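Forum: Protein Structure Q&A
Topic: Joint prediction for protein chains with partners

I've read a bunch of threads here and the consensus seems to be that you should model interacting components together rather than docking separate models afterwards. I'd like to see that in practice. Below is the full input, 286 residues plus whatever partners are listed. Could one of the regulars post the assembled result?
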Amino acid sequence: MINKFSLEEILKNKGYKLTQQRKVIIDVLGNSNGPHTANEIYSLVNDKNSGINFSTIYRNLELLVRLGIVRKLNLSNGYNHFELTGEKHHHHVICNKCGEVKEIDICPFMDMDERDKLEEIDFQPTEHKFEIYGLCSRCRNKE
Amino acid sequence: MINKFSLEEILKNKGYKLTQQRKVIIDVLGNSNGPHTANEIYSLVNDKNSGINFSTIYRNLELLVRLGIVRKLNLSNGYNHFELTGEKHHHHVICNKCGEVKEIDICPFMDMDERDKLEEIDFQPTEHKFEIYGLCSRCRNKE
DNA sequence: ATGATATTGCAAATAACTTGCAAAGACATA
DNA sequence: TATGTCTTTGCAAGTTATTTGCAATATCAT
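Posted by a regular:
Agreed with the consensus. Here's the joint model:
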């Protein structure tokens, strides 16, 4: 979770203003567990505050992604999700039934074999995604 | 690549008909390397044949996904991609610049550590995705 | 060849997301 | 604290990928 000061820094350094809307959006992302869709963010934001427009949310999410504060995930359950970049590298587990998205702190990418394969095809990796889809414990025990 | 007979089997067994359009769509997917967007499939299909409608393509891709013949990928470069499920398990390498998608035959999922972590949170995995984004050799050497 | 049923093409509808523009807000400077 | 500049917002309208309703057509078992 990004604290107010570092956020203020990042924005001001690049000439962006610290608006109420931006504060609320980041606050919502920081105080919720796991990534959220633009729709969810819209609801959460408008619970706290009031009347923040959808286009404002999209514009700010895009800006925050560009600044590296937020990461956009294209999950296979249909919607784009957004999360604070945060400090620790992680990946995701997604329930196919309820749609819940959880972080997992494993990363398969450090494996030597895999890096070798990339060198073979002369590919320079910058990011990677590892997503596990399935059934969460709650949904499994439900029926 | 799925041969005509097994395809015919799969469709007929479930009461679906083997239309010209379906044959062409699968043929295109089978004879192209890597996954393609609906748009690309539309172009490829309409080069070979003529006048297959976009809704027909979408409807059939969805059906083929449901039947397990085709897999849909939600890549982070914006568009959904489709590929034949095929026989061998694989993952993808995606160039951020030219958008090219290549298969890689590595899979990080068999690692014991990871399966353990899933058991910890009582998650039952069914599918998983591993995508590496970066710069392909062609794009890297271009500038 | 025929009929039952699945499928197609077309056009219109969705839904997520983006954009133009005038009004409002942030903030450096006076 | 007031002012001016420049960013940002809200609104409404526009895009774009994808879906859907429906009448016409194609497939396939008989």
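Chain B has two domains: 1-87, 89-143.
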